[in-house]
Amino acid sequence: MGSDSLDSPEKHVLNTTTEQTTDPDPDSSNKPAQSDSSHKAPFIQRKHKMFLYQKTKQEYERMKEERARKREEFLKDKSQREEALKKYKEKKIATYQLLKRKTKKGQSNLNLQMELLLQKIQAQRK
User: The whole model's pTM is what?
Assistant: First the structure.
């Protein structure tokens, strides 16, 4: 019995090792496939990273175009405002030059003032 008790743990150990090798384990059959897929995983990750890089690059290009468009609109509006302001100032100066004229005696020229009022009325009718 003494030798059986020593042999039985060895047999038990042998039985467990033979059971693992002889039993087809579903995980063990997938391990080679997993090692292949894990071998391909860096490629997929690289592809995914490339996709993320391209997506980020496209987003950057879109933002860059949007900024350029906004800047172009801003410059266009600014030039229009400057042009309108320039026309306004020219008109104001012309009006002032017309109204500041004096007669020989130093009085305001009412005839020019009346002409200016007539021009304003005609412009409103158009």
Answer: 0.48
